[in-house]
Each structure stands twice: as structure tokens, then as C-alpha cells.
Design goal:
seven-stranded mixed β-sheet; globular; two-stranded antiparallel sheet; about 50% helix
């Protein structure tokens, strides 16, 4: 095993430890969640982590998230786990272990009205640019998703955002997440990156859950994972390594 493989193995081992702790916490407090993104693909396709995956994601409905947040504020998550309410990340801190975190994505309602959908998505796009710190801009550049005038827009708005305190910017963005709920027929991951924010789904896709094998344990996924994944990535059964994401995660861990 070369050094890179060993590093990935260590990161995944720590991520699995965190996911198990999060799962136990949610089960004990009657909170529904689903593995998400590459972690969900790994659960469905590999029954564990994708070979090169070095991060982990979960998702919740707004109702489950509000319950999670209320209980966290009351009792925390123990000595090892810490939830950053601003960035919606669950960090784990263990001595002599890799620095890792689990991203938590929230499904909020979005109106059926096409025009108001565009308004909400545009407002969130502005908010996402506003909260960009220099470190986050660096991650954006490494990922290479936004170039030319799009990156220029993000850079310019982020410079304006640096005038304001971080907590105020995130509170402003959080209000946008819950705007334009409409008749509550549709949902989207309002706190995702721009590509995810645009993906609008029927509300029932987060109505039911079940346990699936994941590495040496079982974790929770939504019953309608196929709809989620096909909307996200299309053919999720064909492995595709996103090298820029791996590089960005590595850089982020080194900055913790």
C-alpha cells in the first residue's frame, strides 16, 4: 500500500467512525437522515466507501434538521463530535487521527412557481458568493467549477462580503434557504453548492428510510435514493473520479 492509499484508508476509517457516531445519535433521538452524495453512491454501489472518497455527506429534511439542532443545543454530541451550526458540518476531533468532517445538507421546500424558483436560486447564489472567505475561494479555484466571468462574480461579491461579520452573512443566507416554500410539494438542498441548489425534487423523496450495509456496519438512506442520485449525477453505477474534489478536500483538511 503506497502512502496515498494509506492516507485515504486512514481518512475513511475516521469518517466511518464519525458516521457511526452520527447514526447512533440520530437513532437515539428519532431523527431521520440519509447518506448523501458520494457516500450514498458508495453505500448503494460498493456497500461502503468509494475507493478514492475522502469526505462524507448526509442529508435531512428541514423538520429533522430543526429537531437535530434543538437536541444538539441541549445536550451536544459528546466529547468527540462538534457541530458547526454556521457551516453545517459535523467535525470529529480525536488525537493522532486525520482531521475530517461530515457535511450536513438540508432539504427545504421551494415553490412550484417557476419564476419564484429562479428568484430564490439567484438569491442563494448571491448569498453563496457573499460568504466566500479567501480560504473558500481557494477551494473554489481548486475545484475549477467556476471560471471566467462566473469566478469573477464570486470573487467580487466575496470581497463585498468581507465587510460583514461571518455570523450575519450566514444568518442572511439561512433566511433565504427557507424562503418561497410555496405549497410544499417540492424540495431542494438549499444549503448545497449552486449546482445542488438548482436540483428540485418531489417532497416524497425524503419520506421513508431504511438501513443498508456500509463497511462493517449499517447506515440509513432514503428509500428514493435512485431519484436523488440520478438527478445529482445521472448514471451513478459507473465510477467517475473527480480529482479536483479530492484535491480540495485534502487542502481543506490541512487548513483545519
Amino acid at each position: 500500500m503506497n502512502q496515498h492509499d494509506k492516507s485515504i484508508h486512514d481518512v475513511q476509517e475516521e469518517l466511518l467512525y464519525a458516521l457511526v457516531k452520527i447514526h447512533e445519535y440520530c437513532i437515539n433521538n428519532q431523527i431521520n437522515y440519509s447518506l448523501h452524495g458520494g457516500t450514498l453512491i458508495g453505500a448503494v454501489r460498493e456497500h461502503g466507501f468509494i475507493d478514492w472518497d475522502d469526505d462524507a455527506d448526509i442529508s435531512m429534511t428541514r423538520e429533522n434538521y430543526e429537531k437535530f439542532l434543538r437536541i444538539y443545543r441541549e445536550i451536544g454530541m459528546g466529547k468527540e463530535l462538534y457541530f458547526d451550526e454556521i457551516r453545517r458540518k459535523i467535525y470529529i476531533s480525536r488525537e493522532n487521527k486525520p482531521h475530517v468532517w461530515v457535511d450536513l445538507f438540508i432539504y427545504d421546500y421551494i415553490t412550484d412557481n417557476k419564476f419564484l424558483q429562479k428568484v430564490k436560486i439567484a438569491e442563494i447564489a448571491f448569498g453563496l458568493a457573499l460568504i466566500r472567505t479567501p480560504e473558500m475561494l481557494k477551494m473554489t479555484k481548486i475545484r475549477g467549477m467556476y471560471k471566467g466571468w462566473k469566478y469573477g462574480f464570486i470573487w467580487a461579491v466575496s470581497k463585498v462580503g468581507q465587510i460583514f461579520p461571518e455570523d450575519k452573512k450566514f444568518r442572511f443566507l439561512s433566511k433565504l434557504h427557507k424562503s418561497f416554500p410555496g405549497k410544499r410539494n417540492l424540495i431542494h438542498r438549499a444549503n448545497d453548492q449552486f449546482r445542488g441548489v438548482k436540483q428540485i425534487l418531489p417532497n416524497y423523496i425524503m419520506d421513508a428510510y431504511y438501513l443498508v450495509p456500509f463497511e462493517n456496519t449499517e447506515l440509513m438512506i432514503t428509500r428514493d435514493y435512485d431519484i436523488v442520485l440520478r438527478t445529482d449525477v445521472g448514471d451513478y453505477m459507473t465510477p467517475v473520479k473527480v480529482v479536483n474534489d479530492v484535491n480540495a478536500h485534502h487542502a481543506a483538511r490541512n487548513n483545519i
